[in-house]
Amino acid sequence: MNAAPQEAPPERERVLDVRGLTIGWGDRVLHHDLTFHVDRGEVFAILGRSGSGKSTLLRFLIGLERPIAGDVDIAGQGPVDLTTGLPPFGVMFQAGALFGSMTVGENVELPLAEWTDLPPKAAAAIARTKLALVGLEGAFETLPSELSGGMVRRAALARALALDPELLFLDEPSAGLDPITAKEIDDLIRTLNESLGLTCIVVTHELESIFAIADRCIVLDDRGGGIVAEGDPRALRESTDPRVREFFTRGGRG
Questions:
Q1: Are 236 and 80 spatial neighbours (Cβ–Cβ below 8 Å)?
Q2: What is the mean pLDDT of residues 193-222?
Q3: Which residues contact 40 (CB under 8 A, 6 or more apart)?
Q4: What is the pLDDT of residue 32?
Q5: What pLDDT, on a 0 to 100 scale, did the predictor assign at position 251?
Q6: C-alpha radius of gyration, the chain, whole number
Q7: Geometric angle at alpha carbon 132, from 130 and 135, rounded to 5°
Q8: 223 pLDDT band (50/70/90 cuts)?
Q9: Are residues 239 and 170 in the same domain?
Q10: For 231, what's the count of Cα atoms within 13 Å in the CB-facing half-sphere?
Q11: Which of 42, 58, 93, 223 is the most exposed place for a label (fewest CB within 10 A)?
Q12: In the prediction, which pLDDT does 254 show?
């Protein structure tokens, strides 16, 4: 008796689709013909040594820079145009990038002030909710200078969540933190991913973070050679490609 054929697993929905992307400025090409995708609900890491263009690639993905060629489709809306409406993503910038003259609460309220017509009380209530979500319930009136490094990252994450995005970009979220605090940030990212169904795209070179939170990743060549590897980071550390092996051995340090 023949066994019934197994059905193929359903194809997952893509929330980021990058096709043939060439990034750079004028005659200077940083990376050529980048093609990859991110599925809904994944934690996807963009990896590479210092100077490989990870954070620069993020700027092109979120529409702060225009590519030389290729396409970026986010949430089925095509390339990002930040002048035309609410973006379907939030961004946690490197080192937090909080405004020092504003309280933590005011920092979290900024996206709401820019993209919505909510009255101040409603915006403040949302900001308090997002701060509670990242473990900063009592920090609304605090200035960024009064926060520890880990608390600054949490506040920046709350701001990135202010508009309830379906996709979150995080640029080096745990870089420069002590190991215990870095693990707390990693755990928070994974918790938000699992509890809210957030798709997260993380730029990092921190090996412990990669193995703790990333489902899949790409590795960028630091000499402009594009993507040198893609897949589960736990499998890629066994790669025979010397560029990939060096990254997973040295942790992205130059």
A1: no
A2: 91
A3: 12, 13, 14, 15, 166, 197, 199
A4: 87
A5: 59
A6: 19
A7: 115
A8: confident
A9: yes
A10: 9
A11: 223
A12: 41
Query: pLDDT > 70: what percent of the chain?
Result: 93
Phi, psi (degrees; rounded to nearest 5) at 100: -65, -25
Structure tokens at 127: 């900001």
Amino acid, single-letter form, for residue 171: D
Domain contains 201: yes
Residue 108 lies in a domain: yes
The answer to whether 50 touches 206, Cβ cutoff 8 Å, is no
Question: Are 72 and 242 a contacting pair, CB within 8 Å?
Answer: no
- What is the DSSP annotation of 17-28? EEEEEEEEETTE
Helices (H), ranges, 62-206: 104-115, 120-133, 149-160, 179-196
| Burial letters 89-128, b for 16+ CB under 10 A, else e | bbbbbeebebeeeebbbbbbbbbbeeeeeeeeeebbebbb
Q: Judging by beta carbons within 10 Å of its beta carbon (0-12, 13-18, 19+), is residue 197 exposed, middle or buried? A: exposed
pLDDT 10s digits, 42-53: 999 999 888 788
* pLDDT tens per residue, range 9-39: 556 788 999 999 999 988 888 898 999 999 9
- The more confident residue out of 79 and 253 is 79
Terminal alpha carbon distance of the chain = 59
CA distance 233 to 245: 11
* Run of H or E residues at 228: strand 227-231
Same domain, 128 and 67: no
Whole-model pTM: value is 0.88
Number of structural domains in the chain: 2
Specify whether the CB–CB gap between 53 and 28 falls below 8 A: no
Domain containing residue 49 = 38-79+166-253
Which of 138, 164, 190 corresponds to the end of one domain? 164
- CATH number for 194: 3.40.50.300
Answer with the one of 112, 141, 164 that is the final residue of a domain: 164
